[in-house]
Structures are given as C-alpha cells and as structure tokens.
Design goal:
Two copies of one chain form a homodimer. By secondary structure, chain A is mainly α. Chain A contains ten helices and three strands, in the order H-E-H-H-E-E-H-H-H-H-H-H-H. Chain A folds into two domains: 62 residues, Winged helix-like DNA-binding domain superfamily/Winged helix DNA-binding domain (Arc Repressor Mutant, subunit A, Orthogonal Bundle); 139 residues, GntR ligand-binding domain-like (Four Helix Bundle (Hemerythrin (Met), subunit A)), CATH 1.20.120. Chain A binds a DNA duplex through helix 3.
Chain lengths: 215, 215
Amino acid sequence: MKKRFKSISLADQVFDKLEDDIILGVYPRGQILTELGLAEELGVSRTPIREALRRLEQERLIADNGKGSVVLGITEDDLLDIMNIRERIEGLAAYYAAKNITPEAVQELEHLIDLQDFYFSKHDVEQLRYVDDDFHDAISHLSGRMVICDTLIPLHRKTRRYRRLVMGDWDRAAQVTKEHRAIAQAIAEGNGDLAQELMTRHIVHSKEQLIKEEV
Amino acid sequence: MKKRFKSISLADQVFDKLEDDIILGVYPRGQILTELGLAEELGVSRTPIREALRRLEQERLIADNGKGSVVLGITEDDLLDIMNIRERIEGLAAYYAAKNITPEAVQELEHLIDLQDFYFSKHDVEQLRYVDDDFHDAISHLSGRMVICDTLIPLHRKTRRYRRLVMGDWDRAAQVTKEHRAIAQAIAEGNGDLAQELMTRHIVHSKEQLIKEEV
DNA sequence: GGTGTTTCTACTGTCGACAAACGTCTTCTT
DNA sequence: AAGAAGACGTTTGTCGACAGTAGAAACACC
C-alpha cells in the first residue's frame, strides 16, 4: 500500500493550531505571544514555535513587537477587503478551472456538491462550512494557476470565522448550495465565461450578506 | 540622535538575497537548494537559512522536495496571472489611497513623481525600475488596507525581473511616467473613482506591453 | 519631586548537536 | 543474473545553550 499520510511536522501542527486560534478569536487582538510562553504551553521547543510565528507574521495575523508578537487577527475592514478581492479574482479561478476541466475534476466537484446537499439536508451547519471552504479551495486548485491559488487560499482561510455566521442563516445557506451547483455545472461543461460570471456573482452575494449581518 | 536603522537579522538578509537571486534567475528553475549547502555558501548556520527557505516556500518561489528545496521561480504563466490579478486589485488600492489622502501622502507621491521625471530625463533605466516599484508599493501602503498590501506587494516583488525589460522600451517608459503622474494627481485630489480607473488602465497597458514583448 | 543613569529581567537571534527519515548503493541469496 | 535485504550517507526536524538587546524598574542626583 502506498504511503498516503505524510507525517506532519511539529511546526506545521503548531502553525495550524495558532492560525485557527487567532482566526477564531481564541487569542484576541492585542494579546502578546512569546516564543517561550507558547513553547511551554504547547510542550515543544522554541524552534517549531518560531517557525509557526514567522509564518503567521507573513500572513499578517501577528506582528513582531520587539517584545513578543502581538496578535492582529482579522478586523471587519480586513473582511470587507477580502471579499472585495475575492469578488475580483475568484471568477478568474473559475474561468481557468473550466478551461482545464478533466473527468477527475468533474468527479471531485460532483462529490463536493453531493456532500453539500447531504449536509444541507441534515442541517449540519458546521460541516457545510467546511464543504464551502473545500469547494472554493478546490476550484482554486483546479484553475492550475499557482499565483491564483496563493492569492485566494489564504483569504479563504481567513474568512473561516465569519463563514460560520453566514452559513447559520438558513436561507442564505440554501442559496449558496444552489449557486455552488450552478458554478460546478458551468465548470464541468467547460464554459469558462459563464463559470466566471456565476462565481463573481456568488462572491458578491456573500459579501452583501456579510455586510448585512455586520450592521 | 535617534536610532533610525533597526538591525536586520541574518534571516532577513538571507531571505532578501535568496528571493532576489531566485526572481532574477541566479538560481534557475529546477535547481536544488539544501540547508547545509546554503549555510556553508553564505557562512551562517542552518537556523537563519531555514527561516528564509520557509518564507520562500510560502511565497511559492521554492518547493520542498523531500530532499532539499527545488527552485520554482516565476514562469510566464505566473507573470500573466500576476498582471491579471493586479489589473483587478490595484485600482482598489488607488481608490482607497485617494480616500485616505493626507498632505504627507501627497508630498510622498510628488517626491516619487519628481524622482521618476529626474531619472527619465537621465535615461537611467535601472533607477526608473526602482521608482516604478516604489510608486506602486507606496500607493498600496497609502490605501491603509493591510489585506490589499499583502496581496499586491508580493506580486510587485515578483515582477521585478520583467519590469526591467519593460522599462527598457523607451516609448513605454515615457508612457508609464505620464500615467503615473495622472494617477498621483487623481489620488492627490481625492478622486477615488478616477484614481481607480486610471490605475486599472495603467496595469492593463503594462500587461499588454508584457505580452507583446514575450511574443 | 523630577530626571538621568544604571541594573536587571525577559525575550529574541543564532549556533552546534543529535536523532529520525529517506534514498542509494552494496551485498547476499536463489 | 535478478531480486531482496541491509548498511551507508545525506538531509531535515527538533532541541538546549549562549549571547545580545531592548524595555522596565530601581536608584542616585539635582
């Protein structure tokens, strides 16, 4: 049997945990994180902590403050900017995904759509949120354009916290599943222009929903 | 006298050097870099090298290959994607810059425009390239939107190599200086919509120029 | 009491060392 | 001769240690 699960390094684990905690607000904006403190808290040496902090710094989730790292997190302005950027870029990803479509890709998208329908029918908000993430990440990957992936996927991760809120609105969740299905179909048919337009509209809707919730 | 120059850590220096070397092609695509090899070559220990490699990995300039890191660099596809993304985002930066304009910001932009005119009159292509970089970075910063900065500035860095080619075309360089001046003026006047449109058109022109050169 | 100076403490930057993982080459067996 | 098994070398992941530094606190002096 092929080796399928590559061992995750401690540094990766620390990064995943800290990223999640910061995005979800476990570490609030303004909190100071020190390498030694985290090392003790997580029971590892400073080396993997350092690596994780540097990556968080590069994603601007924390900032070096001379004395420790201060948590920045995601502000409401950030969130608006993220949606504005996604609104302008994510259609490109869908376009290229449609242009590069393969039978395997179609299958992958269909699987995600099926999952989405399943969790929707079960009213499982948490899982719907994950599938939503996966759907958008999958299309980014299917575009085959690395720069687009690198631009979009960090933005997807940063919206995780708020995605939960949006998906909690059941009418919107129903609309999302419908829009996703239409996008997947356009991509499967290789209709790049349609996929691009549907995706852009989808993000615009999500942005409007988000603005509405914040008020 | 105030301490003005913060000491740059070895890791930062290594990162800057490697990033430059990869973007400018000193390390060609496909070359394998090992931590130990670089440590010996640069005369530092593996720790700062590791940190630099991880950051390069996050920018997808290299990829971990199990045995060392393989240089990816910037492909022509990447470059096209970068310009497509900038074309869609950089107008936003200009828009916000115009909205947040301050007297200091106006002065900074005017200074960059003056510099640009100066180097243009001296036919100094190399310096023009730097000023071009600075101009676009400055507008990103003036937008005051961190997510936009984080999206655009890495893309600016990655186009450094090709910017030199473009600026070598003297007609285009003249046009660039004119377009920059118009953008700076729109921003200084606080005209966000105009700044956005001028900036977008400017990037579109640059993209078209780039495509023309590659053929 | 306020201000400049010194000390102190906590943190980061860097290093060398050790162990685990992975591929490679040799060697043994059939 | 071909294939399997094991030894070897290279590279990375992780650790603890040491030095340098920057801010804070304590102290002395006016």
